[in-house]
Amino acid sequence: MSFANDIRAAFSRRDNALSQLLLINVLVFVVLLLVRVTLFLVTGGAVSLVSVLEWLAVPSGPMTLLTRPWTLLTYSFAHTDFFHILFNLLNLYWFGSLVREYLGDRKLVSLYVLGALAGAALYLLAYNFIPVFAGRPAILYGASASVTAIIVGAATLLPDYTFNIILLGPIRIKYIAAVVVLVSIAGIDGGNPGGEIAHLGGAMLGFLFIRQLQRGRDLGRPVQAVGDWVGRLLSGPQLRVTHRGGAAATAAPAARKGSLPKPEQEDIDAILDKISRSGYESLSKEEKQKLFKASQK
């Protein structure tokens, strides 16, 4: 099977959001790498990658942003440095796996997209209203805001879940998230203030997203609605089949509805609270099944 077929297979599955997010980041990185080398060979360095990257990255100027609104999302998939994308993808995989396991693919994508938007929003506010940054041209790119949203979201959902870190041993992810936030705060007066501010925007979104979800409000519904619309647009018109005859036509839907009842939101909130207190392994088999069914919504 060729690389193209592998990529097509990865994106054909609806339950493969984490792999798809990782793959998009890698593909964009490879394309930018090839563009950078090509520009060097053709122009001898007279035209740099920045001229291309500006069409993917969020500009600090509002008027420029109005001509490039798509950058509010595309920036979160653009990397030019190997270690930058490496650390982002590792964290996306580790913490994204947790979010996907407990909340499902749709919530993971919502958290990634909303984290990117929140990071961009805080970055724009800082660079246009805080005097030390105002008037300083800059661009924002990288998945760090989205990844930070996922890190903090996972830590808010499962604060006592532990990762075994080399040389350090088991560490609860709430402390890992706290270190990530503190490092971002400390880096604001360094060489990448815009990026660190965007991290904080993602962190705030991650915390708010899970807290609202635990209260029964899904902030990701608009993202999911847009995703469903795009999916229908790409899949083309669907063939609708109608059945005639009373008993045969109505019995099957009723049976399907009765065989896999969706758990109530109150039950899910109670299960999430139990995970936060005691961890996933404390759940009963029935509670795990309810959580899984809820993640398929």
TrEMBL record:
Membrane topology reported for the UniProt record: Multi-pass membrane protein
Domain DUF6576, first and last residues per copy: 264-297
Name used for this protein in its record: Membrane associated serine protease, rhomboid family
Domain Peptidase S54 rhomboid: 68-210
Residue intervals passing through the bilayer: 21-52, 72-96, 108-126, 138-158, 165-188, 194-211
UniProtKB keywords: Hydrolase, Membrane, Protease, Transmembrane, Transmembrane helix
One MF annotation (Gene Ontology) recorded for this entry: serine-type endopeptidase activity
Pfam families: DUF6576 (PF20216), Rhomboid (PF01694)
Major localization class: membrane
Family: Belongs to the peptidase S54 family.
GO biological process entries: proteolysis
Cellular-component GO terms for this entry: membrane
Record carries keyword tRNA-binding: no
Keyword flag Protein biosynthesis: no
Subcellular locations according to the entry: Membrane
InterPro entries found in the cross-reference section: DUF6576, Peptidase_S54_rhomboid_dom, Rhomboid-like_sf, Rhomboid_protease_S54
